[in-house]
């Protein structure tokens, strides 16, 4: 019997023997920006199928990791639903067609996998006579086990128009124990669990036109796919994918963690299967750089992870557990995906952090949901309203999907549309609460200007000066500020986090200061303040534009350093690091990036050292313009979601850093001089921020640190090189001194208490001590109360201290608390001094704003005690 790993390997070997080139699995984060995740084996090849790009080779074979969440609620309930799964695929781009794909699939299934021929069934499209005849002639397949289905089942289309074609699917009969009888055929009612699809052959041969008619494609393509988990289940004689050796070891590991045995109780089996599936999905998503968040693919990861954690609770596991399963998954999958081994620490850390974050929310949220369900049952309504479900989400942070699942398990109705309505109401309130200011007419102006003049020619990559013609002038205020557009400019407009250049513009006896440059639709708009002469800028006039060179140099240093920083972060922290925002100014740089926890001092030091090491290597900047496809081949980093033109600018520094970037850079990184990290902080969930300085600004930062160390050395009366040693010695001496002070305070308190006890007076046979101080802290007052109780036995002790603010401490021995309660007394005292408080009947402490009221309060309370006794 073949293992799942052997099925995968033999598939690739088989199609390599048929002249296919093996392509490694693509990332779960697709290049296709219309897709959130890779959902099928053909996704990486979609541009070839649609004719958008030329395929690099005519025959390809792959095993592709995929994620689907459209049937999340069915995972664990059925034998074959998964969030994470692998697709085995063989593809032809204008090469072989139906004959070969049918013959090879049958050969692999029957001769390599050894699946019995008489268990196989085949479907073809209802009009595809060619496919049926090929199955009979090429494979000697029994015609009576070929079934014709319509467009819903056996037709693939890229969309309403474009590439499309019929499908032929291969099914395995699991036997009459899964439905039907000896005479049942594929497609008969009640046989869905009996006839299992394991292979799909898509024959892309038509182009659907706008009017709906079909025209033959000049090049016909083949896209075939087989689910590894399904195929393995058949090969291993398992009716359930979860019981194959691809997944069952994960179930066994979770069973060990939870003390649960598989196959004993259906509910627990369900939870074990959910965790096994979801842990695979979570492991691979994190491995491919996805970080838990509240949007996009980060939310998909968070949702799957949280569902798995909840099922851990259903198995009685209250400790963190999900990250522990990763080792088992890596061990199972490392042969096909060796990068898992390299990233295992990172994967476990991300999962553990998210698990810790959600555990408290989950426990309190489940209590709230169950309470709401009980209330619904008592009222007889049997449903949770949108108001309740939204409150669980908004107030307690409990995901709607989990509320929905718990309600379903408890027979309670819940309506998503009501929840969505409450969400929309909240968003509307937020929108109405903030003022939105729009520059009306700006877009219309830009469109009209672009239609007339086209885009501004930017010459700033090679020159800091330019003679240009004014195309537009408009007044911005009454203080001599104008917006000027010229036909060309050396001024860099604010973009990609890089601040705009400044400088001057002069002509016709007028000198203006360029204080800002913005661009829209590649039209550069200069904000100009007239600083000398009368305003004489007009359309058609020739002017000279000069960029502030020193400021530009400083910005270039920081921008190039940002590229080195991003690469260094990816090397030290992992490839999950992606830019989440940046600021490139002349005096500093700021870089926001995806990361799940604060960086350690050691990590920061490694990053800073690596950047400075690259600066010392004097890497030359290499700037090229190329197509996006060519840029991707170089490994150039791009920001997901950013729109790039067909020709992009690629900035490289040696073999270290390659990015798509339109910004200004140094010609050699040695010009950066010095790179110094100033701070590392968190700015949002899963987003960290590094601020740093370069060049002379970095030197000034280091000098400031040096001055600080010198000042500390002088204060400690030591040499700068011995500051650390002296500081440690001083801290140790201080610790010893503080301990001695505490011991002395205790002795003083004991001595004072001894003399204080003599001041206690008897009121109706009860010893009462009331005393005020001017220099006591609450701990000292507590200690005096404790000693007074020990010395006096049955007593009431009321103490107050004036430290600018009022502090009160009251102690009552337990035999007297039925008459006098410490909490009530201390509250009276605090109110008089402008505060409030309370406490236990035998002991209480409180404070007040006005320390001058302490003595007055003590006198009043003494009278109160007399009345109570």
What percent of residues adopt helix (DSSP H or I)?
A: 40-55%
List the uncertain runs: 430-442
Q: Which overall shape is indicated by the principal axes computed on the Cα atoms?
A: globular
Specify the biggest β-sheet: 9 strands, mixed
Description:
The protein has 23 helices and 32 strands. With 869 residues, it is α+β, with helices and mostly antiparallel strands. Strands 1, 2, 3, 4, 5, 6, 7, 8 and 9 form a nine-stranded mixed beta sheet that branches. Helix 3 crosses helix 4, helix 8 (266-287) packs across helix 11 (339-379) and helix 10 crosses helix 11 (339-379). The radius of gyration is 37 Å and the shape is globular.
Provide tags for this entry.
six-stranded antiparallel barrel, 23 helices, nine-stranded mixed beta sheet, alpha+beta, 869 residues, single chain
Please provide a brief summary of the model.
The protein is an alpha+beta fold and 869 residues long. The chain is built from 23 helices and 32 strands.
């Amino acid at each position: 019997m073949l293992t799942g790993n052997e099925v995968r390997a033999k598939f690739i070997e088989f199609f390599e023997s048929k002249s296919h080139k093996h392509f490694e699995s693509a990332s779960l984060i697709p290049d296709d920006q219309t897709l959130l995740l890779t959902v099928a084996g053909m996704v990486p090849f979609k541009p070839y199928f649609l004719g958008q790009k030329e395929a690099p080779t005519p025959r390809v074979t792959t095993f592709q990791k995929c994620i689907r969440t459209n049937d999340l609620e069915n995972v664990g309930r059925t034998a074959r639903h998964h969030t994470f799964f692998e697709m085995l695929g063989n593809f032809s781009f204008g090469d072989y067609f139906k004959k070969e794909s049918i013959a090879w699939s049958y050969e692999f299934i029957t001769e390599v996998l050894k699946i019995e021929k008489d268990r196989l069934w085949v479907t073809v499209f209802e009009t595809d006579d060619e496919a049926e005849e090929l199955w009979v002639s090429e494979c000697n397949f029994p015609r009576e086990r070929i079934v014709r289905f319509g467009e819903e089942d056996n037709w693939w289309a890229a969309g309403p128009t474009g590439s499309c074609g019929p499908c032929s699917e291969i099914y395995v009969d699991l036997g009459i124990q899964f439905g039907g009888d000896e005479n049942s055929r594929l497609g008969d009612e009640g046989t869905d669990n009996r006839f299992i699809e394991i292979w799909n052959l898509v024959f892309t041969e038509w182009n659907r036109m706008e009017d709906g008619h079909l025209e033959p494609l000049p090049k016909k393509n083949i896209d075939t796919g087989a689910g590894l988990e399904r195929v393995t289940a058949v090969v291993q004689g398992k009716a359930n994918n979860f019981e194959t050796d691809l997944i069952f070891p994960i179930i066994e590991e979770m069973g060990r963690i939870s003390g649960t045995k598989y196959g004993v109780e259906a509910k627990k089996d369900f939870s074990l299967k959910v965790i096994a599936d979801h842990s695979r999905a979570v492991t691979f998503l994190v491995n491919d750089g996805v970080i838990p968040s509240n949007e996009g693919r980060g939310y998909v990861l968070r949702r799957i992870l949280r569902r798995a954690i909840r099922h851990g609770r259903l198995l009685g596991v209250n400790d963190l557990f999900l990250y522990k399963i990763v080792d088992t998954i890596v061990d199972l999958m490392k042969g096909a995906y060796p990068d898992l081994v390299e990233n295992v620490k990172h994967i476990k850390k991300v999962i553990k952090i998210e698990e810790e974050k959600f555990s408290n929310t989950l426990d309190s949220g489940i209590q709230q949901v169950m309470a709401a369900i009980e209330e619904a049952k008592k009222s007889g309504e049997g449903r949770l309203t949108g108001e309740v479900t939204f409150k669980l989400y908004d107030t307690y942070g409990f995901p709607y999907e989990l509320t929905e699942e718990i309600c379903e398990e408890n027979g309670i109705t819940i309506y998503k549309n009501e929840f969505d309505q409450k969400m929309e109401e909240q968003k509307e309130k937020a929108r109405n609460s903030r003022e939105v200011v729009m520059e009306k007419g700006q877009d219309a102006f830009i469109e009209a200007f672009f239609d007339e003049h086209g885009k501004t020619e930017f010459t700033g990559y090679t020159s800091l000066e330019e003679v240009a013609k004014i195309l537009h002038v408009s007044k911005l205020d009454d203080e001599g500020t104008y917006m000027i557009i010229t036909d060309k400019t050396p001024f860099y407009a604010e973009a990609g986090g890089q601040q705009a250049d400044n400088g001057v513009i002069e002509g016709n006896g007028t000198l203006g200061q360029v204080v800002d440059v913005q661009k829209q639709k590649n039209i550069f708009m200069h904000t100009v303040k007239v600083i000398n002469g009368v305003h004489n800028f007009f359309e058609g006039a020739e002017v000279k534009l000069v960029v502030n060179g020193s400021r530009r140099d400083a910005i270039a240093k920081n921008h190039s350093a940002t590229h080195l920083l991003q690469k260094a972060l990816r090397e030290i922290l992992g490839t999950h690091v992606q830019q989440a925002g940046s600021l490139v100014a002349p005096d500093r740089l700021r870089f926001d990036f995806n990361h799940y926890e604060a960086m350690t001092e050691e990590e920061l030091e490694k990053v800073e050292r690596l950047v400075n090491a690259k600066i010392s290597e004097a890497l030359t900047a290499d700037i090229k313009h190329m197509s996006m496809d060519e840029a991707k081949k170089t490994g150039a980093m791009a920001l997901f979601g950013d729109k790039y033109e067909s020709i992009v600018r690629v900035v490289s520094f040696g073999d270290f850093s390659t990015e798509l970037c339109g910004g200004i850079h140094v010609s050699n990184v040695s010009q950066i001089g010095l790179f110094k990290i100033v701070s590392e902080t968190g700015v949002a969930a899963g987003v960290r921020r590094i601020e740093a300085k370069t060049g002379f600004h970095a030197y000034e930062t280091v000098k400031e640190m040096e001055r600080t160390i010198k000042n500390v050395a002088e204060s400690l009366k030591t040499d700068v090189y011995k500051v650390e040693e002296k500081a440690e010695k001083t801290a140790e001496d201080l610790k010893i001194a503080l301990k001695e002070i505490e011991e002395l305070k205790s002795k003083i308190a004991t001595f004072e208490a001894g003399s204080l006890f003599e001041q206690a007076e008897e009121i109706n046979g009860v010893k009462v001590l009331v005393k005020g101080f001017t220099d006591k802290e609450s701990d000292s007052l507590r200690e005096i109360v404790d000693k007074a109780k020990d010395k006096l036995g049955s007593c009431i002790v009321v103490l107050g201290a004036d430290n600018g603010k009022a502090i009160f401490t009251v102690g009552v021995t337990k035999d007297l608390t039925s008459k006098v309660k410490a909490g009530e007394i201390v509250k009276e005292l605090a109110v008089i001094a402008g505060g409030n408080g309370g406490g236990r009947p035998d002991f209480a402490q409180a404070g007040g704003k006005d320390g001058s009221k302490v003595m007055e309060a003590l006198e009043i309370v003494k009278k109160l005690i007399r009345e109570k006794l």
